[in-house]
UniProtKB/TrEMBL annotation:
Heterododecamer (2C3:3R2) of six catalytic PyrB chains organized as two trimers (C3), and six regulatory PyrI chains organized as three dimers (R2). The keyword Mitochondrion does not apply. Belongs to the aspartate/ornithine carbamoyltransferase superfamily. ATCase family. One of its GO terms (molecular function) is amino acid binding. InterPro entries: Asp/Orn_carbamoyltranf_P-bd, Asp/Orn_carbamoylTrfase, Asp/Orn_carbamoylTrfase_sf, Asp_carbamoyltransf, Asp_carbamoyltransf_Asp/Orn-bd. Carbamoyl phosphate binds at R59, T60, R109, H137, Q140, G265, P266. This is Aspartate carbamoyltransferase. It comes from the Bacteria. Catalyzes the condensation of carbamoyl phosphate and aspartate to form carbamoyl aspartate and inorganic phosphate, the committed step in the de novo pyrimidine nucleotide biosynthesis pathway. Residues 157-303 form the Aspartate/ornithine carbamoyltransferase Asp/Orn-binding domain. The gene is pyrB. PROSITE patterns: CARBAMOYLTRANSFERASE. It comes from Solitalea longa.
Amino acid sequence: MQQLSNRHLLGIKDLTENDIQLILETADNFKEVINRPIKKVPSLRDVTIANIFFENSTRTKLSFELAQKRLSADIINFAASSSSVSKGETLIDTVNNILAMKVDMIVMRHPYAGAGIFLSKHINAQIINAGDGAHEHPTQALLDAFSIRQKYGDVAGKKVVIVGDILHSRVALSNILCLQKLGAEVMVCGPTTLMPRYIKELGVKVEHNLRKALNWCDVANMLRIQLERFEIKYFPSIREYSMMYGLNKQILDSLDKEITIMHPGPINRGVEITSDVADSKQSIILEQVENGVAVRMAVMYLLASQYPLV
């Protein structure tokens, strides 16, 4: 059996192209499983996984939980807001207390970039990064790549534009790294104030005109404005942002070709994307949600089968 080159999934930057292809191919098999009448397999029976979320999450947390249940794993759910973290307990103490209960694998979301990397140097359990600050969100990038591959047959050679709040988006960075490793061309589009200073160093095209970006691409991944991460005002108003970078059906229908619309969620309807676009036949947003379960099943299965669990 082929194996991943890493013990953890901390970020796309740590994966090789072969790792990514292995995850996508394994996800193909699990996609078949979750569409059967009996959607469960015993692959991770007797494996205990802790979901540790220090930030709010709906889709990612539910997707991981469902993937774990489909694999027959035992699950512990931990929310920081109702834990001893609120009393001042450190991250390492919190996790070590959970590990003392004989947990094998940790799925963690944390508001600080690099939290998973830090933790991986201090504990023995395997760690899956479910989003760390504005740094990376590797399983989202993998499910996005899987969805493009499902739509077009291959990711290589496809032109993908990521539109919106690139500065604060962990989805953007992971997507850029993942798509480039699979041979896609990547462009980012949004206001200058929402572009990181290092963006051109990643080898992506930068465009500030939405219509030009959409006419260039095969796939448009629309990101929400992450107002909860704003420390200053990056544009005059939501209304003005929406006028410049919001995608509506009129713009979509006026393009030179038919493109595919994606969104990692949650959608702010009427801001970055209108309802008639989100619900159109060109949208694969719900397919992304379904594919997320299969991809996360693949990641946990491959990690658990590679190394002896503690």
